[in-house]
Amino acid sequence: MAVTAYMEAGLETQILGIQAQANSFAEGVMGSVRTVHAFEMRSRLVRKFDEYLTEAHKVGNKISPLFGLLFSSEYCIIYLGFGLAFWQGINMLGRGEIDSSGEIFTVLLSVVIAAVSLTALAPNMIEFTRAASGAAQLFSLIDRQSAIDPFDESGERPLEVFGHITLKNVDFAYPSRPGVKVLDDFSLNIPAGKVTALVGQSGSGKSTIVGLIERWYETSSGSIKLDGRSIVDLNTDWLRKNVRLVQQEPVLFQGSVFDNIAHGLIGTQWQNATKEVQLAKIQDAAKMAFAHDFISELPEGYETQIGQRGGLLSGGQKQRVAIARSIVSEPKVLLLDEATSALDPHAEGIVQQALDRASEGRTTIVIAHKLATIRKADNIVVMKKGKIVEQGTHESLIASDGAYAQLVRVQQLNLKPSDTDSESDKMDAADEEGDPADVVKMMSKIATKDRTRMELALDRDDYDKHKQLGFVTVVLRLIKESPELRWTYFLVLVGCVGAAGAFPGQAILLANVTNVFTLTGSAMIERGNFYAAIFIVLAAGCFISYFILGYATNIVAQTLSHTFRRQSFDDMLRQDLQFFDRQENNTGALASRVDSNPQAILELMGFNVGLILIAVLNVLACSILGIVYSWKLGLVVVLAGLPPFIGSGWFKIRFDAKLDRNISKRNSISAAIASEAVNAIRTVSSLAIEQSVLDKYLIELDKAVNGSIKPLFSMMVWFALTQSIEYWFLALGFWYGCRLVSFNEINMFEFFVTFMGVFFSGQATSLLFQFSTSMTKGKNAANYIFWLHELQPIVQETPDNANKAPKSGGPIVLDHVRFSYPLRPDTQVLRGVDLEIKKGQFAAFVGASGCGKSTMIAMLERFYDPSTGNIRIDGDDLTSINPRLYRSIVSLVQQEPTLFQGTIRENIALGIDDSSSSAGLASKSSTTVGTNVADQDIEDALKAANAWDFVSSLPEGLSTPAGSNGTQLSGGQRQRIAIARSLIRSPKVLLLDEATSALDTESEKIVQSALAEAAKKGDRITIAVAHRLSTIKDADVICVFYGGKIVEVGTHLELIAEGGMYKKMCEAQSLN
């Protein structure tokens, strides 16, 4: 057993390692579900996920012979021990070494009882080895020493901070790419209290400087000092609390607006202040970040829940909340990494003024591609390939007419003087006092039937309202849904019948053994040797039965685990966006379910289900045996003992199921916190809130523990009954059996057969309910998997639309479109949008953050359907078209680009639709993502996205790993890869939601030119949401959104001439 357990532990460790990779991949995909839907990636990502599962399945199958040996050897040795003990005892009695047969019988019964107890050891050995394998990895992680530990109390904590930062001869290369220098002998002086701006190409090292100041990495050589002290000598937690960061892609946490901004107060003098004091401080920061007005209009103001990663807020709103979070603590050093990239021009202008005020008296480092935001900087540093090209003020750099001046010319907007300033100011005032669409609170004008339909849809997505299937029904359905295992199930049944048959056989054998003691001399020894040989036969039978059982049940368990992991992942990705909008369906909770539910089924349908079936067969066989040999004794004990046994067991299972559901729900909350923190680790570390996150996580764990005490106590009361009732009816059986023997109604042989049958029946029943936890976990897990599999998305392919595809890709017509998000039906985001976009047109959507622009993109991608009105393409309503065929002609590049775990090649290849016949699909036989797309097609897409130069310069080129969520690349590099992914499918409709916000000016110009040229050649409709107005000034039609409606439509020059909201936005971004 020790040898097999050791070997199994090694294999389990391998499986855990593979599954960890699979879980990481699944979690990354779950957090990027919009991208998955937009590119119809589901089948390809499921295949990629299945590659991990297949590898784990192969390793898992190697455990089968080990399980067979583990169980068969245990039971075989037990029965061989019976035979040996009996044989030795009879011979010792015959030689006179033992005085009486009673001593032999006492030893035999002791061995029997010990053996029954030992049989419970093998199943638990499986759990022990799995736990040991998991613990080994866990302890390895716990024992790992962090090179930069935020919990380390050592280091200097200066009493005063001035904010003077110097970088001297800094060299740096990321650990994952040590051969690529990001900073090369870089030196820079950043004076205290001044604003220093960093500009340059994507990947030139700007964000790397921020990472080094935050001490996410150590420099390869050179030094970074704060007020003359090396940051290496400073306490890490102190440093990060005095240096605040707003990142290019703002990350908010699940909770309220108040909770998110309050994260910036942790570790400051306001951390333990009253909520009123904190709220006043938070409101001041929100006002400074131009966020107070929209927050106040939210349904619950600062207490409004903003969803996972702030998903219920627009991109601009998220960024303003992130800015408020960073400035609320009044830091001495402020790092702004594209902090205003997601803001509309009007909001950006006001936030920029606020940041200018906030920067007074503190050191501010600004990274920006919108040069209008840094023209007032005290020093502008132009970077290229990790070096400084030039530096100076805006005016001095313009005068020198170098690299910076060239960037300025590219971004300059064409503004003609006009006498409409007063009208523009009036519109601006209206905008400032206006009501962005997603914060307008109004009575829903949706018809009653639509309201009912939405409520039914919400109920449909609620698992708690799903009717639970019983345990037997669940097991039968699991068997039914795996027909490929029918012969394996037959082997399981054969093994169970053989193993269960050993118990009544043993009862008869032990009863016969008692008759041997009535004999004497050679007859006793001869008869004793015969029964000792029967024990050997019984041991051989058990060895065969349990080997078959152990081998076959592991095959079943590994196959079902593989099947349902894949199915769960597939079923989750099949759901529409409404499913993922629900709070309980956050990324961490779903990723946890993908792992834990199939694992629960593995544990149930593995050896446990075999032991459960053996126990049931054992109870039936031994009960029948007892009744057959002595119907009076058998009936009295069975009818008196089994009902309370089964009743207490039923109650135990019921409480166990309730406990498991509660723990699962509570653990999903803690899992969500952990997942959210790990995925946003840069935000967590920059805010120095590691301890706060850990405390929050521990609170949820404590809630799970405290919430389980009461149901656990109730469950254990019933469990205690299941384990003690056995002795009550054994006592009854012994007392009543002796009475029957004393009245000569049965003989000793019949008594022993019946009594031993009752004994083994009781042991089997008590063993049965020891598996109730496995039974309830497996039942609950299977119920969720079945519910998820049956859950149908609202937007899906149906028999009616299966072959309905867009005719030619235009025009697109929106007819009085109104829309409310399903979880906020009383808040209309779009309030009657009418628009026609013709073939080949470039349409741009601009307006204040939260006015409905990104919602329009979501509607055009058909993530949601309109509440009223309709969207048509080629005259066909989108709801009548197959969503998969429609999305095959549409490409989306989002404001926060999403890349997946894998290489750059694989990420770009995901842009090709499986059913597409586009160039580059050389073969359909390969299951590996990216192998069916020609490198030339990928190269062409990268060139169009101005990404080929940086990709080809990487040591591994297209095979370079992008990292989880693309973390191995800079923000601009990620966005260019995302653009290349969208272009490789040659879309007829291209949707750009702030697609070039993270690009440097030079890259943006090249990409814009490539997009415009491709659009003209292929009659492509391009729809862009943009805050950087220089990127859309050449659009054929510009739509200005306000309050969920289009209030201005025209070309750049037409709208400038009108002197309305658009002109005011342009003035805010002008570099003049």
From TrEMBL:
The keyword Transport applies. The keyword Cell cycle does not apply. PROSITE patterns: ABC_TM1F, ABC_TRANSPORTER_1, ABC_TRANSPORTER_2. Gene3D superfamilies: ABC transporter type 1, transmembrane domain, P-loop containing nucleotide triphosphate hydrolases. One of its GO terms (biological process) is oligopeptide export from mitochondrion. It is a multi-pass membrane protein. Keywords: ATP-binding, Glycoprotein, Membrane, Nucleotide-binding, Repeat, Transmembrane, Transmembrane helix, Transport. Its main location: membrane. InterPro entries: AAA+_ATPase (IPR003593), ABC1_TM_dom (IPR011527), ABC1_TM_sf (IPR036640), ABC_transporter-like_ATP-bd (IPR003439), ABC_transporter-like_CS (IPR017871), P-loop_NTPase (IPR027417), Type_1_exporter (IPR039421). Residues 1-130, 490-777 form the ABC transmembrane type-1 domain. The chain crosses the membrane at residues 66-90, 102-122, 487-510, 530-557, 607-627, 712-736, 748-769. It is found in: Endomembrane system; Membrane. GO terms for cellular component: endomembrane system; mitochondrial inner membrane. Residues 165-410, 812-1068 form the ABC transporter domain. GO terms for molecular function: ABC-type oligopeptide transporter activity; ATP binding; ATP hydrolysis activity. Belongs to the ABC transporter superfamily. ABCB family. Multidrug resistance exporter (TC 3.A.1.201) subfamily. This is Uncharacterized protein. It comes from Conoideocrella luteorostrata.
